[in-house]
Write a structure and sequence with these properties.
heterodimer, A: 368 residues, mainly alpha, Amino acid/polyamine transporter I, 15 helices, 0% strand, B: 520 residues, alpha+beta, 3 domains, 5-stranded antiparallel sheet, 12 strands, 45% helix, 12% strand
């Protein structure tokens, strides 16, 4: 058995394994410690992250298992066999709408952060447009190529993240972490709910597994991929708390970027590491955005089968861009982001679980 | 954007028919010769010799092109052999027909190493034009084509574009027979296949596709053959024409075929399951497919010990990065993010830029362009003057421009580093692509600083993962990730650990080390 066949457009389990963390790790990690620190004591937030992670892993398994049952079938095809065709089409269109909103939200956020850290005078719309054009170029290319980009960018971002954590170890104070397990039950729950949102995005496997050549490896690959963000979030959280303390963390909007600020490269080769960190982070943000956009186009394409992919991209992209411009303040972007997360909960957890149960009860299976 | 080469081109008319001559050989020698003369319009180098044989005064004639064919071979082995035949009557009886006579000539008289009997005038003309000699005999509707190719050839020289410190010194020449022989000298493998085809409707040059049967993936050979068969141009003066015709995407700045002048590199590629394409008249052999990683490899990596090889590889990747991104990085840091440069360095850069008339972006673009001028001039000029232009150009850029306060000294350093880095890239074809891309990166950096630069990097990577070379993704084995092939990518693992041929080539025979390396 060879994992890669000559002239192949299909993807292997490795692509799925990298697609999940590339999709999940994005903007969420920048603000996650702040959101959790408020409702938990000292470093206890990691328990919530772990708890949310375990719940998420279960749903990742269900989602991947569901899609893997129907090899080479698009989401709308197998959903139609489970829950009548009109329902499947409606859900697919909503799914696509949700991901388009998600795309526009990230495009806007990237431009906002870029304005904060790199440019002060350049208009926001221009920064958005440039980033979005690159996303469009990525989505217009081959789908397998886009998934392969994860393999190239994610390790780089991961290495930079690990370096930043390592350089911060000397600021790490063990007192900030203690005392442990002093949080109320409700605090853990609240923090877990917050971290749950940061794990969303893995629902893309519902669509991407259709491209795989051997789907039985998909559930394991997706779960292995998901453990990476869980570990990253936990480690980042503990280091952030260790360096800044719980009190300060809950006040800083982007603790991870502040963590990068603390870094002093030996030999002082570069200063202002947070800018470099953000520049590298744009690569993972690109992956997240491009995949979200690509999957929404894929969903639309599975409904409007006669349309060309490139035409769908040209039709949807102006709307995505305009929706991205709409919010006025960073606060509004965050609010919209929260609303999108609610949809995310439905599409990544409730919907796959429902479909999975139906497929088990009605014993519907794919042809593979 | 990525076309399937050869698919869309429809053969609306066949130019072949306008250039071929259906006529057959006639029984009359003079008529045949006149026919050839008429088709070729009796050029000055067409040499015709008509003579008679024996008591019956049987008329014979030879036709060849002077300068392409070996005179002494024609004299000694064709004309003299036939003349001597008169003194050995046991071979020729007087009542022999012309057809019988020509068979005797072919089998027993002429001592050339390759003789072919034909009745097609088209084929005869093709052979004569490629340096063979044709022999007509009165009364026979067949003619003999005697191989007598010989023309001035260049001696084997060390390849000037791919010089190595350690490694074989011989390089390909313009003659395809020499080149195939050089490959055979490296591979005595009976499974080495060489398929010949003619390319160019008018040039009708020989082209050889070579591969090792049993290693190469059969689909790859099929695909190469299919694309080459679609070649539909008048002439093919250099393998660059073939390359551009059969490459996967002509919109890409990256070369998707490797070209080399080195037989050792070619034979190593063949043993990895690749296909080589040789064109008569070009010392550059094409190797397909090529990935990004291949283009940063040099045969020397394998000739030196593995640690050195690994170091060289890492240096080359760093050089490739510098060649593309260094000027952009300088522009971004100096004009957008001076805060990111360490304060002391920032001060000294600011001090040197004091009073300069142009922003860093303009400065960089102008300087890189001047550098390109110098490079071009250096290639065009004869070698002794080439060095002079180097000194003059270096002085103008390095000294005078700085003293005159037009450019900053740091800029000169950046430009020089970029140039050195691009020379460190072993494949010239990708080094010139880098020279092209550097402009894009400078432009991105001069408008959007680091943000633009990283977006440029992303765009470059999107392009690379979408690009294919003969069905193999260009970015293999980075992505798709083939962990076994990483042994021979940025690192060059010890050869005893490279037990298998590259996974990406999907070779039929996977084992490179057969007995599990019993030497260890």
């Amino acid at each position: 058995m060879k994992s890669f066949e000559y002239g192949d457009q299909e993807i292997s389990h490795k692509e799925i394994m990298f697609a999940v963390p590339s999709m999940v790790v994005g903007l969420g990690i920048l603000t996650l410690p702040q959101r959790i620190a408020g409702s938990t004591n000292a470093s206890d937030g990691w328990v919530s992250i772990l708890g949310a992670g375990i719940i998420i892993l279960f749903f990742v398994w269900i989602t991947a298992k569901l899609a893997a049952q129907f090899p080479k079938m698009t989401f709308v095809e197998y959903a139609a066999r489970l829950i009548s065709k009109p329902a499947a089409i409606t859900i697919t269109l909503l799914f696509s709408l949700y991901l388009l909103m998600f795309t526009s939200n990230i495009v806007r956020s990237v431009a906002n952060v870029a304005k904060d850290y790199l440019f002060e005078r350049t208009p926001l719309e221009v920064l958005m447009l440039v980033f979005f054009l690159v996303v469009i170029y990525g989505a217009a290319g081959s789908r397998a190529g886009l998934l392969r980009l994860n393999l190239m960018f994610f390790p780089v971002a991961l290495i930079v993240l690990i370096l930043i954590l390592l350089f911060n170890l000397k600021h790490f104070e063990i007192d900030n972490i203690l005392p442990v397990f002093q949080t109320e039950w409700s605090g853990y729950m609240k923090a877990a709910r917050e971290s749950l949102y940061s794990f969303l995005g893995f629902e893309i496997v519902l669509f991407y597994i259709a491209l795989m050549n051997r789907t039985q490896k998909a559930p394991k690959a997706a779960m292995v991929g998901m453990t990476l963000p869980i570990l990253i979030y936990m480690i980042v959280y503990i280091v952030v708390i260790g360096v800044f303390g719980n009190q300060a963390t809950s006040q800083i909007i982007g603790p991870l970027i502040d963590l990068a600020k603390e870094v002093i490269v030996p030999g002082q080769f570069f200063e202002r590491i947070e800018s470099i960190f953000f520049v590298i982070w744009i690569m993972t943000l690109f992956n997240t955005t491009a995949m979200a956009f690509d999957v929404s186009i894929m969903a639309l394409n599975s409904v409007f089968t006669k349309m060309k992919k490139i035409n769908l991209i040209f039709i949807t992209s102006p709307f995505v861009f305009l929706i991205g411009i709409l919010p006025n303040t960073f606060h509004e972007i965050m609010t919209i982001g929260t609303w999108i997360s609610y949809f995310g909960i439905f599409f990544s957890m409730l919907l796959p679980a429902l479909l999975f149960i139906i497929s088990k009860i009605r014993r519907v299976r794919g042809y593979g | 954007m990525h076309r399937q080469p050869g698919k869309r081109r429809k053969n609306r008319h066949s130019p072949q028919s306008a250039l071929s001559y259906e006529a057959a050989v006639s029984a009359d020698v003079i008529e045949n010769i006149n026919h050839i003369k008429q088709i070729l319009q009796s050029p000055s180098d067409l040499t015709v010799r008509v003579f008679t044989f024996g008591q019956k005064k049987l008329q014979c004639g030879t036709v060849c092109i002077d300068g392409l064919s070996d005179r002494s071979l024609i004299n000694d082995h064709i004309l003299q052999s036939i003349h001597r035949l008169q003194y050995s009557p046991e071979l020729v009886s007087t009542n022999m027909t012309a057809d019988e006579f020509i068979v005797v000539l072919e089998n027993e008289v002429l001592s050339a190493h390759h003789i072919e009997m034909t009745s097609s005038l088209d084929k005869i003309i093709g052979s004569v034009l490629s340096g063979d000699t044709v022999l007509f005999v009165e009364g026979s509707k067949h003619a003999l084509i005697v191989e007598s190719k010989n023309w001035p050839r260049r001696a084997l020289e060390e390849p000037s574009t791919e010089a190595l410190i350690r490694g074989p010194r011989d390089g390909f020449t313009e003659s395809i027979e020499t080149n195939t022989a050089l490959i055979r000298r490296h591979l005595h493998d009976p499974a080495l296949r060489m398929e010949t085809m003619k390319v160019g409707n008018r040039s009708k040059k020989n082209l050889v596709i070579t591969y090792i049967e049993g290693i190469v993936h059969p689909d790859l050979v099929k695909e190469v053959r299919r694309r080459l068969e679609s070649f539909d141009m008048d002439i093919a003066p250099e393998s660059g024409f073939i390359e551009e015709w059969i490459e996967d995407s002509f919109l890409s700045p990256f070369p998707t075929l490797l070209h080399t002048e080195r037989p050792d590199k070619t034979s190593a590629a063949l043993s990895q399951g690749k296909v080589a394409i040789l064109l008569d008249g070009s010392p550059f052999v094409l190797i397909a497919p090529a990935t990004f990683g291949n283009l940063l490899q040099s045969p020397e990596d394998y000739y030196e010990r593995w640690m050195v090889g690994t170091l060289l590889r890492i240096l080359r990747y760093a050089a490739a990065f510098c060649a593309v991104f260094l000027p952009g990085l300088y522009i971004a840091l100096v004009s957008f993010h001076p805060g990111m440069i360490p304060s002391k360095l920032a001060f000294s850069i600011a001090a040197t830029r004091e009073g300069l008339p142009f922003p860093a972006a303009i400065e960089a673009i102008v300087m890189i362009t001047v550098l390109e001028f110098l490079r071009e001039a250096g290639i065009r000029l004869p070698k002794p003057i080439g060095q002079t232009i180097g000194i003059v150009g270096g002085l103008v850029i390095g000294e005078a421009a700085v003293t005159a306060g037009i450019v900053s000294p740091v800029m000169v350093i950046v430009v020089a580093l970029t140039a050195i880095a691009s020379f460190a890239v072993p494949a010239y074809s990708i080094a010139i692509s880098f020279r092209l891309i550097v402009y894009g990166m400078m432009l991105a950096a001069s408008i959007f600083g680091l943000y633009g630069l990283v977006l440029g990097y992303i765009v470059l990577n999107i392009h690379l993962v979408n690009l294919k070379s003969f069905g193999i993704p260009y970015s293999t084995p980075f992505a798709p990730n083939l962990s076994d092939d990483w042994k021979d990518l940025i690192l060059r693992a010890p050869i005893v650990t490279m037990r298998k041929r590259p996974e990406m080539m999907q070779t039929k025979d996977e084992q490179r080390i057969n007995n599990g390396g019993s030497m260890r």
